[in-house]
């Protein structure tokens, strides 16, 4: 059978086996429902309008009420002021949750609030009380009311927010890197385990009578990759649909989803091919996890960097390494730290690494899958391959022309 025909045959077999498993449909449904809910619920729930605060006042005045109203408007909220008889009544109203806080204006001014919440409201009310106290003292000193108003009407200092969307971009970075981490880890282990099972049960020997070793490896890689990408699509499609119809996506999420596509393909090709090659080295299914431990460590390390510091110098370096870039580069795209030149170099290095890993993985798989009886070492298999080539060259030199 021709090579590409064998790849299609094995890949179709892997896809059919996956579609028969209930776990595939459960995971796909959970991702689809969860992603859809994350996109739809913010639009459905939306903003219920400005928050409404209730404040009780003791010995209040129209001027104090106006000051409180102005303070609450700064919080984009509305206010209901209720006058109560004394401090005890104000305390009772707060304790019974009839009001958000109480203001005692007569004599020693103070604010009564329950617990430690409403910090922003307390701060604004304290500011209003301070302004009212300053006004009263200035008037007692003989300062005309118009001049007092001019002094107190000075605008507050402007607040310059640097990168106000950074939290949303970091959340998008965390979501993308987590999803890719789970995908690459589970798929690489799945390929390694499937290869180990086929070798232990001698299924691979039966399949090798039909297809070539390279077609058997890459057919499994392509089949498992298709299943994994289909599962990933269940989480991404709701995001793309919302973006296409003009929905409001978290800052950086749309760019991360679209921009990370090359590294999803590069990472899948690298990790699945390496997983299949390493899985062919083991003798029992239980050894597959330890065989792919180097891949797991690379994924865990790059995951922590992508989650914790995607803008750091370390992340900018790891974005060029093929085994770490599939997680680090999408995270850098999400936070806006990746440059076009960096992305181009990273993608080029990744494609070159895929070509090298495909070639070396095929050699390791072809020589290891038929050798049973003990667990093989990667160095041993590669040395055997090099020794075989040297022997073939020597035989060619010795043969008569």
Question: How would you briefly describe this protein structure?
Answer:
This protein has 17 helices and 4 strands.
Structure description:
With 401 residues, the protein is mainly alpha-helical. It folds into two domains: 3-36 and 167-398, no CATH class; 51-152, D-Maltodextrin-Binding Protein, domain 2, CATH 3.40.190. The chain is 70% helix and 6% strand. The chain contains 17 helices and four strands. It has helices spanning 3-20, 22-45, 62-73, 87-95, 119-140, 145-152, 166-200, 203-208, 213-244, 253-259, 261-279, 288-291, 293-308, 313-318, 325-335, 340-368, 378-398, and strands at 51-58, 77-83, 101-104, 110-113. A four-stranded mixed β-sheet has the order 2-1-3-4, sandwiched between helices. Strand 1, helix 3 (62-73) and strand 2 (77-83) form a beta-alpha-beta unit. The longest helix has 35 residues, at 166-200. Residues 385-401 have low confidence and may be disordered.
